[in-house]
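[Primary structure, fold]
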Amino acid sequence: MTSSEPERPEERAGTASDDEHGIDPETDHPDVAGFGYERARDELAEVVKRLEAGGLSLEDSLALWERGEALVAVCERHLAGARQRVDRALASVEQREEPDSPDGTGQ
């Protein structure tokens, strides 16, 4: 890394993570791992509101932040799955629309 490149958070902390957030909801927050997208999104919005409101101890803020990271991971997992489904559907449509001959007539 050159001096002009910003440090990534995982480099500053001295830990490398397996995913972008370093939070595995299955192990770190098993209570949120089974949430559907909407529930995780709604609870994440509440976490953000509580953090923005302030007034929490440092320890409580960190715990809430970590829960928010787990909720983000759950949301991202659902969104990735949705993207895969859309990509498969689009590929299926494109495959059906491909012409059988180079002139595009299908003959």
Summary: The mean pLDDT is 79. The radius of gyration is 21 Å.
